[in-house]
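From the methods appendix. Each design record in this collection lists the discretized structure first, followed by the designed amino acid sequence. Records were kept in a plain field format so they could be parsed without special tools. The example shown here is representative of the layout used throughout.

RECORD:
C-ALPHA CELLS (165 positions):
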C-alpha cells in the first residue's frame, strides 16, 4: 500500500479523534432500545434457521438472510432513526424487517425487478405485516394489528412462504 495514502488516512483519523460532538444524524442508544434489538435479534435468528432449512430442502440455495445496518434503512428506505433490521431475499422477492415506534416491528415486501431494461416501472414496497410486542415477565409477546397473539415462528413461516412464492 502507498505510504502517502496510509499517512493521509492516519492524519484524517487523528484530526477527527478528539471531536467531542456526535456526528449529526447518529442514533443514540436508549434503554428502551434493548427491547427492539432483542426482538429483531430473535426474529433474525428464527429467520436464519428457516432459510437454512429451506435451502437444505431445496435443490438450490434460493434464500438468503442478511442483517441491515441502520444506515441502510435511512439511506435506501428513507426510514431515519431506526435501531436496525434485516432482510430475507429470494431470486424474485425480498422482505425487510425493521423496528417502528411504539413497540412495533414492520415488515415490508417487494418484488424484485430483475429486468435489465431499467425503463420498466419497478414495483413499490408493500407493507406485509405489523407486529406489536411487549415484554411480559421476561418473555416477549407478539400480536397482530387486531390484538391476536402471534408465534414468532409462525410470523417467519408466513414470510418465507411469501418470499419464496
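DESIGN:
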Amino acid at each position: 500500500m502507498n505510504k502517502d495514502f496510509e499517512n493521509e488516512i492516519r492524519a484524517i483519523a487523528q484530526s477527527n479523534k478528539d471531536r467531542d460532538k456526535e456526528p449529526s444524524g447518529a442514533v443514540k442508544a436508549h434503554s428502551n432500545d434493548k427491547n427492539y434489538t432483542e426482538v429483531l435479534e430473535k426474529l433474525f435468528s428464527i429467520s436464519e434457521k428457516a432459510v437454512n432449512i429451506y435451502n437444505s430442502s431445496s435443490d438450490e440455495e434460493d434464500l438468503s438472510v442478511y442483517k441491515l445496518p441502520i444506515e441502510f434503512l435511512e439511506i435506501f428506505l428513507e426510514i431515519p432513526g431506526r435501531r436496525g433490521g434485516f432482510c430475507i431475499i429470494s431470486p424474485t422477492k425480498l422482505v425487510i424487517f425493521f423496528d417502528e415506534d411504539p413497540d412495533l416491528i414492520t415488515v415490508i415486501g417487494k418484488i424484485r425487478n430483475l429486468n435489465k431494461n431499467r425503463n420498466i416501472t419497478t414495483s413499490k414496497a408493500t407493507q406485509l405485516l405489523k407486529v406489536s410486542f411487549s415484554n411480559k415477565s421476561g418473555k416477549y409477546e407478539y400480536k397482530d394489528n387486531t390484538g391476536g397473539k402471534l408465534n414468532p415462528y409462525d410470523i417467519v413461516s408466513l414470510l418465507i412462504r411469501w418470499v419464496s412464492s
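APPENDIX NOTE: The two ends are 47 Å apart (CA to CA).
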